[in-house]
From TrEMBL:
PROSITE patterns: VOC (PS51819). The keyword Signal does not apply. It comes from Paenibacillus illinoisensis. The lineage of its organism: Bacteria, Bacillati, Bacillota, Bacilli, Bacillales. Pfam families: Glyoxalase. Residues 2-121 form the VOC domain. This is VOC family protein. Keywords: Metal-binding.
Length: 134
């Protein structure tokens, strides 16, 4: 099994796509006005309008109501990303910090309030842990 994507449900696809394009530094693929994919070699971030939820036959998924998932991206230089994203991000949760498990990280919220963690392994153990993950 391969982890293929995570999908964020929103009421404003265009706003969220524009935000993630700036954060991720890539252009989204837009196969439909209500759906977008930001494709990285490791995984895809999909963004779907709340009206698409019914296509899956599920009763509900509430846009902008996530309080349990953090989207995480490994980066080369957390401090450089923090400087680059300062003008883009309105809601900073944690400025650059080295965590007890050996990652240097920043944490912020997207326009819908979803948490995003950009991290960089910095301790010997963390570097070793991520060395085989590509």
């Amino acid at each position: 099994m391969n982890f293929a994507s995570i999908r964020v449900i929103t009421d404003d696809v265009d706003r969220l796509v524009e935000f993630y394009e700036k954060v991720m530094g890539i252009t989204a693929e837009r196969p439909a006005p209500v759906f977008a994919e930001l494709v990285l070699p490791s995984c895809t971030l999909a963004i779907g309008h709340s009206e698409t939820v019914s296509l899956f036959g599920v009763g509900s998924a509430v846009a902008a109501d996530n309080r349990s998932v953090i989207l995480e991206f490994r980066v080369q230089d957390v401090d450089a990303e923090y400087k680059r994203l300062k003008p883009v991000v309105d809601d900073w949760v944690k400025e650059p910090t080295t965590m007890p498990w050996g990652n240097r990280a920043i944490l912020f919220r997207d326009p819908d309030g979803n948490l995003i963690n950009l991290f960089q392994p910095v301790s010997e153990e963390a570097i070793r842990r991520f060395s085989s993950r590509g």
